[in-house]
Amino acid sequence: MAPLTVKLVKRNQPLYDSFDDSWQVVHNALEKIFSDNTSEVSFERVYRVVYDIAFLGETEKFYKKMTTYLIDRLSLSSQETFGNMDVSSGSDSSPKFIQCFNTFWLANNHHFKLIGDLMLYFDKVYSVPKRKLQVIDLCYSIFATAVLYPLQQNLLDAFTNTFNKIRDELIDSEDYGTVLEKNATIIAELKSLISMMELILVNDGNVSFYKTSFEQYFVDKTKAFYSNSIQWDNLPPLEIFYTIELLSPAEREISKRCFNDDTSSKLLNTVEEVLINDKASNIVNSLVSMAMSKQDKDLLEQIMHLSVENTEYTTRAYDAIKKYIFNDLQENICVDESLRRRSLMGIQWTFEITKKRTNYNKFLDIHYPNGNDASSYIIDESFVKFLEINIKQSIEFLCYYADSKLKMPPSDSVTLETIKSDLHPIIKFSESLSAMDDFMETYRVMLSKRLLHQRYTYEWEASVLKSLSSEVGSYLTVNIETMLKDMNISGDLTRSMKAMTGSKTTDSSLSHLDFHPSVLTMTAWPFDSMNEQEEEQTKLPSVMQRQLDVFADVYKKRYSQRILKWCHSLGLVEITYWFGDDESTRKYDLVLPFHSAIVFLLFVVENGENQEGKQTNQPWTLDRIQHATGLTTAEVTRQLISLAIAPRFRILKKTSPGPNIQSTDTFSINEDFKSPTETVRVKTVNLTPGTTTTGGNDGTSIQKSLERDRFVVTNAAVARIMKQNKTLMERELFEQCQAVLKPHFFLQNKTFQHSLHHLIDKEYLATDPDDPQVYRYL
Amino acid sequence: MDKKFEDLCIACRTGDLPNVDRLISSGVNLNSVDRFDNTPLFLASLCGHEEVVKLLLKSGAICDRDRHEGARCIYGALTDSIRDLLLSFDISKAFDMNQPFATHISSLLNDHPFLTTFDIIFEISSSQNLDSSSTNNFNEVYTLKAHKYLICARCPRFFDVLCNGEKYKPVIKINNGVPGYILELLLKFIYLVPILHMIKHNDYNLLIKLSRELEMENLTEFLNKAKHIAEPSEKSALMLENQYEFTSTAKEQLRQFVDSYIIQNSFCCADNPAQEDTIKLSQCEAYPDILVSLKGSNGISKIYPCHLSILLRSDYFKSMFLDPFKEFTTYTRSTDHYNDIGSALQVLDIPTSKIEVFELSLRYLYYDESNIPWDYAMDIILLSDFILTDRLKSLAATVITQSKEILQNYSIFEILYFAWSTRLERLEEFVAKYVAFHIKKIYKQPEFKEAITKSSQRISQRQETDTIEFTDDIRFYLLEKYNFEPEDIPFFEEEDENDNFVIESGYLDYKYDTALVQGVLQELGFDA
Prior knowledge:
The complex is a heterodimer of chains A (778) and B (528). Chain A is mostly helical and 778 residues long. Chain A has 29 helices and eleven strands. Chain A has helices spanning 19-34, 43-55, 59-82, 94-118, 120-127, 135-148, 152-172, 176-182, 184-199, 209-228, 237-258, 261-293, 297-305, 311-332, 342-363, 374-389, 391-407, 416-432, 436-452, 458-472, 478-504, 532-537, 542-558, 594-605, 622-629, 633-645, 699-725, 730-741, 749-761; strands at 201-202, 207-208, 572-579, 586-593, 620-621, 652-654, 666-669, 679-681, 727-729, 765-767, 774-777. In chain B, helix 19 (374-387) runs antiparallel to helix 20. The chains are: A mainly alpha (778), B alpha/beta (528).
């Protein structure tokens, strides 16, 4: 197209008429710039010439000339600079190559800027309106094609080699500062080259060379560096650990210094991947065992902090701790079979466990990367896993321990606070046990005895109940609450009874009886329904019977609508008795189960109704005793065996020797009875399991009530789930039930099947006629 | 940075009016900038908090379009109502801020890393150099750099009063008890930096005394008023009133300086000036650091004593001197030997043959002269296209569009081609509009067809969609001519042509005009 002729305003005549002359001026200027003789270039003149070229409409031609010139010039100087250079990828020559390339780049970048400024007017009239690369960008693009691409591999190799060399030095040294300072020049060169690669755009100026050709390459090389440069396989775990610990900060230090945030985090992730995932995760197990067996808290903390973000590693580390604790418990906690009683074994065993727990609590109280409560979670999980090995025994033992603590009378050394801290681990465990309801049932049975035997401290029980309730849920503690409430009401009633009888003093013979009636809500207590006939036939000593009648009156007055029934077999009687003759009486406080007591009292009371002094023994035969007490023969036999034959509490004596009771035997008080303690707790022996009406102290009854409860809960769960889903495969249903019931107990297939049959019987469910595995809700 | 000021910036971003109010009354400087150079006023207008903007303006925040910060406020305003609010408080009423005059003058106080245009240094040794709030060493020498020509133009008494008349040395030692920071305030005033908020109450009396001795009447007057004002809103009102006046005064002073020192001292010579003449010019009372010459149409050159610091307003000179080309080297060498008798300054050539055109451009650079006679407008455009002063270029283009004489002397198509060659879209649109309004007269002219053809060729160059920009513009202005919106046309096309409403709307006239353009296009073989 012909240049526009502007007639009306005359521009100044061009300095040169011909394009070639004008180009010569520009060419000379460019040459001078490239040979760093810029101060010989007159901006005024070149600008004017470029202006003339634009005025003459030769812009396109000029642009092409420029392009050709730049390609030739850059190829030539690249050849001059790098042609004779040893650019093989040997690492020794790498820093030199980097230095050389950087110098070359910086010089040319400076030239490009000057050229761009000289072509200011040209860009304005040509490059911008025609949407061509502006001159400076043209320079960059030609630099890419003429220099960068031909040398790309050499540059990347040299970059990697040089960078890895600094990495090596950092790893070997402990003082990063010195290493970085020593390498400051080369680091600056690397950084300058990074900004060069970020500046040079490729793919029509859409994306930088850095992104397309450098970044991923370098990330891969970094991965290779950390995987291969260290002879990992030959190192012991601790050595590996300390090496890994050194590497990450070293890499962070150097990559932060050189790269932008994006790349440096990519690099760190790569390093993390190699070091933590590939290396550290494999040794974390042995490291943790090492730290734990050496009780090296610092090492453990270091191990935990090796990686904050890598969850796989952290999980492995936690697992390793758990495994260690579990193994420790398995090896070191065992039941001391030499102890006489099972409860003592349980107490001892649990004590050992709580001691371990305290120790671990102390040891694992380190700073964890993600939240500080990790320790208690780890510990409880490992302990519960251990407890689950023999869950029945564990529950029993834990409850024995709790029972033993709660039985203690309050004193200076045993307070609410010590109880709380002693029982804290037990309560914590209870929450995670799979058979939580079993635990609660066992606990409840022991509690019931404590309550009935008046060996409890209300405040403690209430406090423990509160903690339990918040851990296991109120569903399982509601009965216990009722039990405690019962005790409160009983106390109340006793007080009001005392107030009434005290004012009337109708029967002075009752005054030396200390009567503590317990009013029990039948459903809340862990006893089978009472044998009413047996209870009614039991004959009480008249004094006692009168006392009961007084109480019954008081109760009726207060709760006229309620039925009061006596359950003597649950009672406990404390009798103070002087054994021996007048010269050497020994005072003992006898604590007797109710039936034992009425048997014993026969010898005291029936012999003369004289409460003051010693009684003369009259011979009592089995028949007579049975007749006088109204108990069954079996029960009387059992009581007599307990009182006269069982080794420790022979407070009665039998006429014939030998361990058996014959109908001809007569019984009397054993005045020679001696005991090391003033209080004597007499226990009734068990002849055949299951015959006892007091129940509860043998496992089967707990098991039964437990199964009953579980059965009911399972029924409810199945019905609920089926109501929602209408039809389900048996397996799905089972899994869902298990999930729902998990907080209460671990659902066994047996219970589940039982429940299914029950519900089918009750026509809540039906199996699908085509597929017996599918259940339908009706 | 001041914690209170930082809080104020945050409150302005979030629009926390009560907090802004509180911080203002606690006495924070409203016209300071944060580390990103944002003023509180800018932040509030950018974030669209009109109430905060209003409060800031009333409390003394300055919006001066002639200054960079003020311009940013107006351009950054989120809503039109905020922009209008800012404009109503604007103190300069300038119409364009591509190269704001005051900002340029103020920026000269900043030292450039390698190109320094200062020609005078003041060294003040005084025991009270630092203001009372500073804890630095009291006996430190206070150094201030400045431009001699600017001081001469703005405050002729400066050297007599403060430097015992000394002004020929490059370094002047001042030891008359005037603290350095007071001198700095005066210099800032000379360089049009708003100083009101920098003045400590205790310094008013000294400043007033000095300004009186220096015969800076409007400063004296201003200080006397400001002294008694504590209320921030009143203070800012005073600022608004005066800063515009200060700028106008400065412009006037520089105009006088250009007249009496630059134009007066310039001289004509045939071809190459004699060495002694340029030396003489280099040492004239204008204190130049660069000489500019142009070659008139008669072959006679004219040389002017000029100042690089002023020429730097043009991107042409800026590029020339901010890279280490020959000119930069020569400049630093020649100003290094400034005092050597016998050395001459370098001479730059300006490619225009008209003295008036050059002088107008020079006046524009020195003091924003914008009064351009129509007959020089085109030359001015050409020259500013060369020296890259876009603002002057569009000023001149405006003159063309508003001048009656232009069209009496030039054909409309000549103007079009001129617009193309100088890339002035404003002028292109002006032509298109003119053609649209006079289409009945123009459509038959062969020049019209030629212009359309040329425009179509421009398109093939630009590789855009195959429309012809010139005719598209004409169509656009045809709509404007008859007060239509583009979406009105389909509606009218469906209506009956004989309908009174259609006739009254002027649609038929519009249709006729468009048909004329369409006819020409068809004749030329363009289907568009």
